[in-house]
Every structure is written in C-alpha cells, then in structure tokens.
Amino acid sequence: MLKISQVKLPVVAGFIYTFVIVFIGAVLFSLILAFTGTREASLPTFVYAVNGLALFFGGFVSGKRGGEKGWYYGGMTGLFYYLFVLLLSFLGFDVKFGVSHLYSLLLSFLIAAIGGIIGVNITKR
Question: How far, in Å, CA of 111 to CA of 29, rounded?
C-alpha cells in the first residue's frame, strides 16, 4: 500500500493532503450539524474556511517537498485542486462556468502558492 509520505511528486502530494483535509473537514462539519444546534446557514463560511486552510496546507506540503519554486508547486496544487472540484461540480451538479469561477481559480492558486512559498522557506532553515 502506498503511503502519502512515499509520494515523490510535490504537486501530487499537496493535492492528496488538500483532499484529505477537505474530506476530514466535511466529516467533522457533518457531525457538528447532526449532533449540535448549528444551522446549515453557517455552511458556506465553514466550507470556505476549510478549503482555504486545505489549500494553504497542500501548497505548504508541495513547496516543502519540491524544495524550490514553492510558489509554482503550491500554485499548481491549488490549480489542480480547483479544477478537480470544478469538474466534479460540472459533471455531478450541472454547474455552469462563469467569471466567478475564474476568481475562485485565481484565489485557489494564490492561497496554495503562499503556502508553497512558506513551505520552501521553512525547509531551508
């Protein structure tokens, strides 16, 4: 069985970490919704927060594993993650493409790129 620590490609490792964090966040929020008085109105805020954190951490991991060009490896992690989510939205929920998707794509790239920059600089110390 392949362990995440054995993945050598920085972008793939970052993508896997991002996806795992989002999955854990979704399960945790589902449990919070089921067993507390929290309303579904807080769902968008939680989703944005978890995705932002996951993108940052995924970019951090890919930048750290890449050892250089953290903005590139992190940014590509954010780009691939958002394209994956967009593909699922398009195929599963018939979401139409729009300008807002370009803004979200850019934001995903930037958040993960910042994580990648920090990951590279922490590695060098």
Answer: 22
Question: 59: part of which helix (H) or strand (E)?
Answer: helix 43-66
**CA R_g for the chain:** 15
User: Number of C-alpha atoms within 13 angstroms, CB side, residue 88?
Assistant: 5
The CA–CA distances, whole Å, from 13 to 25, 32, 41, 67 equal 18, 29, 33, 13
Where do we find the tokens 């018939």? 94
In whole angstroms, give the CA distance from residue 4 to residue 102.
30
pLDDT along the chain (125 residues), means of 10: 62 93 93 86 88 96 89 94 87 78 92 95 70
The pTM of this model reads 0.85
